[in-house]
Design goal:
- With about 80 residues, the chain is mostly beta strands.
- The chain contains no helices and 6 strands.
- Strands 1, 2, 3, 4, 5 and 6 form a 6-stranded antiparallel β-sheet that branches.
């Protein structure tokens, strides 16, 4: 569970993509969160790409301090 508590969240357009950025907290660790939302041309699918970076101030060789995910949502006709 991500508790988003950004003091300065922001959203902006990058061409046809909507980008949101902010900070939050996951299990006591401060994280930066960036989401990019895109609709396909037909408006039937929305893709959400998420990047979460842990802001712990150090790194170990060969370890990652980030996680990314891509979700695709399809509109269902009712």
């Amino acid at each position: 569970t991500v508790a988003v508590a950004s003091a300065r969240p922001r959203a902006f357009w990058d061409g046809v993509r909507l980008v949101t950025e902010g900070t939050g907290n996951i299990q006591g660790q401060t994280v930066s969160i960036k989401e990019t939302l895109t609709l396909n041309d037909a408006g039937t699918e929305m893709t959400v790409e998420t990047l979460i970076i842990v802001q712990h101030g150090y790194s170990f060789g060969g370890t990652r301090n980030y996680r990314s995910a891509k979700d695709v949502y399809t509109r269902v006709k009712e």
